[in-house]
Structures are given as C-alpha cells and as structure tokens.
Amino acid sequence: xxxxxxxxxxxxxxxxxxxxxxxxxxxxxxxxxxxxxxxxxxxxxxxxxxxxxxxxxxxxxxxxxxx
Length: 67
Description:
There is one protein chain. This protein has three helices and no strands. It starts with 12 loop residues before the first helix and ends with a helix. It has one domain.
C-alpha cells in the first residue's frame, strides 16, 4: 500500500514465502524460537540473511510504520 505495488510479489505460496524470506531473512530458531516446531516448517528452505532494515527496502516508511 505504501508503494502502490505489492511489497512481496510471489506468484504462488512458496514463491511468496521466498520473496518474504529474501528481505526479512529465513526464519530460524535464533530469530524465532520455536519456529522449527511449526507444522509447515521446512529446514530445507534456502537460508537468506535479513537485510538490516525493512526501511532500506521500502524507503518510504517511518519507524512506526516499520514496526
């Protein structure tokens, strides 16, 4: 909504997840304790590191919107 286009534009569910992971990082136990216990968690997903701030990707949001 802030960019007048989807922030994460995937063409299917897995593509959507990977678009999110490429920016926010692939969930892991350090970032999200208990994530590996979720029913659809897959340790074989590519492991992307998060960018330092979502604001660097979006450029239009303030700290309150990012949170």
